[in-house]
Amino acid sequence: MTTDPEAQARAERQVCGLVNGLAAQISDHIRRRAVTLGLTAPQATALRELSAPMTMRELAERMSCEPSNATFVVDKLEKQQLIERRPHPGDRRAKRLVLTPQGVELRERLLVLLGEGSPLAGLNREEQAQLQRLLERAVTRPAGAERSTGG
């Protein structure tokens, strides 16, 4: 099956615009909600992602940033007594990030705020799951992989 290169370019441009627009809306939403709690957007993102104790590397992956950037954010959260660094039970060289009771309470408030007026709120759970599956499929498809023509 051949595709028209012009149509393919147009489709990619449209999808890129939509994905970038959604990402910008989500970032702006997080920033606006974070400010109401006295947090920066990266701090709010870190708190959102700290659903359980994890290493700095794991947090950086979840935040889609370099570990050095996550360290800067965690340092600020630690100064606010929202996060503690504790020894990792299975690796003496590593530390695990753990929310303090104050951090747990703030995270719960943050999650409620992030759910209010979210750019994804217009989609039901099934639609959100479908969007996630499609984006994961597009992102994990190997570069240069040819589509199966079924024949």
List the helices and strands and how they pair.
Elements: H1 5-36, H2 41-49, E1 54-55, H3 56-63, H4 67-79, E2 83-87, E3 95-99, H5 101-115, H6 125-140
Antiparallel strand pairs: 1-3, 2-3
Helix pairs in contact: 1-2, 2-3, 3-4
Summarize, please.
The protein is built from 6 helices and 3 strands; from the N terminus they run ααβααββαα.
Summarize the structure in words.
It is a single chain. The protein is mainly alpha-helical and 151 residues long. Helix content is 62%, strand content 8%. A hairpin with a 7-residue loop joins strand 2 (83-87) and strand 3. The longest helix has 32 residues, at 5-36. It is globular.
Strands in their spatial order, largest beta sheet: 1-3-2
Distance between the termini: 9 Å
Low-confidence stretches: none
Mean pLDDT: 90
Oligomeric organization of the protein chains: single chain
Strand content: 5-15%
Order of helices and strands: HHEHHEEHH
Q: Describe the sheet with the most strands.
A: 3 strands, antiparallel
Number of helices: 6
Number of strands: 3
What is the gyration radius calculated from CA atoms? 19 Å
